[in-house]
Amino acid sequence: MEDDDHLRRWFVRDILPYERELERYIARSCRDRAEIADIRQDVYARLIAGGMAARAQSARAYLFTVARNVLIDRARRAKIVSFEQVADIESSWQPDTDAFERALTARDELRRAMEGLEQLPPRCREVVRLRKVEGLDIRETAARLGVGRHTVERQLTLGLRAMANYMLGGKGRIVRAPLMRRSEGGEA
Amino acid sequence: MSTATDLEQTAATWLVRREQPGWSDADDAELARWLASDAANKAAYWRLEHGWQQADRLGSRRGGDRSPPSFVPLRRYWSGLAACLLVVASISITVSLFTQRAALTPVRIATAIGMQRHVVLADGSRLVVNTDSALRTAVDRMSRTVWLDQGEAYFEVAHDARHPFVIRAGDRRITVLGTRFSVRRDGDAVRVSVVEGRVRVEGAGPETGTAAIVTAGDVAVARGASLLVVDRSPMVVEEALSWRTGMLTFDRTTLADAATEFNRYNRQKLTIADERAARLRIGGSFQATNVEAFARLLRGAFGLQVRTSSDTIRVES
């Protein structure tokens, strides 16, 4: 558990800040948004499974090495392999050395969180607001809004994902599993 | 059908439930089992947990109460509180001042061993944070303070004569208006190397009250009550800062000192086993994170014995 804690801190501090850059890198050889999310998740899982072993080197270099391997594996497994695609993956990803990382100040972070909240669909936004700003739990939120607890939980879960995505530099769109019905609140 | 989306949904459900009042030890154990069962679960959960926590700042929108984060130094808290009281007392002070003061919660920046981070602060100043370091920044247009808690950072401070840039390293305070320099902290020793312009180094307490102006090409070393300023050539100072490009530069440096330097950047530690080898002097530029290449050179150039294990490289004559 001690080790896990180290691993989690490393992942959160040294890997997650590159999420946007990682997604752009993946998007070079893959267009489908759901597939990009799959590949990103796959990369993260491999990094975590790899654990302590490769951590002496730069986290960013390690991240993009793993990403490249995942993309190559995917290209190999695909029935039709485009040579162009493999060539593209093989070509090294030039780090943008001028891209200084912006330290989010408390105020930037608040502004970003407010923007993220703002663009949620109305019902989802209200549920997230009651949780994060007012600190209400699901039961209290359900009572306040006069809706079922199940609805609140579902909206909060969707809102949590969209907010987390937005705070990590993403677009913060609501992404539903295809099995869920779309009648629950509007699309972002 | 995306597997990542499904997994994310499951992870989000865990996070939502964990924040609810009924969360029990049994739930906690079940979550731990779920996390332990697959690295993919950890990836999805840790990612969402982090992003969701970052939105916690929204809590400050509730009423007017802002409890200070635990790492804010007490004095800062009181001065913040005093600023708030002033606002309450004097209606003429604008709301913007209030939000500016209150928003100055320090931002924490840390690096792991072997890592470096480039950061631009709100006032346009640039930092390069060296290996295994931790600092906090509270910088906006009104005031500029950085606490160096551990390690080393290089600063290119944006010029602003009206708002001095203050770095606090232990009980030392370094004040600048706009220049390039680095601050390194090893326990209670603080070393300031100035590349351009001038900075003022002073102690914060009665014990360390001496102040000195350090100019380009100078290195100031402060420890306890003493403050030593050494005049070096600007070239020597530039070399001491070559870590910014991932290189370590040595000039007639003892092997013992070089090993200490390498060990700041690598988990695999270099140990010099005997006195004779430790006293050897070396020069040149080396890649900070490639300690193995350095050890190979030692074997080649000095005929030293090199034994490598997973966490150490042992060198002896």
Outline the structure in words.
The complex is a heterodimer of chains A (188) and B (317). Chain A folds into two domains: 2-90; 106-167, Winged helix-like DNA-binding domain superfamily/Winged helix DNA-binding domain (Arc Repressor Mutant, subunit A), CATH 1.10.10.10. In chain A, helix 3 (33-50) packs across helix 4 (59-77) and helix 8 crosses helix 9. Chain A has nine helices and one strand; from the N terminus they run αααααβαααα. The two termini of chain A are 38 Å apart. By secondary structure, chain A is an all-alpha fold. Chain B has 317 residues and is of the alpha+beta class. Chain B has four domains: 3-54, no CATH class; 66-104, no CATH class; 106-236, Jelly Rolls (Sandwich); 246-316, 3-Layer(bab) Sandwich (Phage tail protein beta-alpha-beta fold), CATH 3.55.50. In chain B, 32% of the residues lie in helices and 34% in strands. In chain B, the strands form three sheets. In chain B, strands 1, 2, 3, 4, 5, 6, 7, 8, 9, 10, 11, 12 and 13 form a 13-stranded mixed beta sheet that branches. In chain B, strands 15-18-17 form a three-stranded mixed beta sheet. The longest helix of chain B is centred in the first third of the chain and has 16 residues, at 3-18. The interface between A and B is large, with 70 and 65 residues. Strand 1 (101-102) of chain A pairs parallel with strand 2 of chain B.
Provide a compact summary of the structure.
The complex is a heterodimer of chains A (188) and B (317). Chain A is built from 9 helices and 1 strand, in the order αααααβαααα. Chain A has helices spanning 2-15, 19-27, 33-50, 59-77, 83-90, 106-118, 122-132, 138-145, 149-167; one strand at residues 101-102.
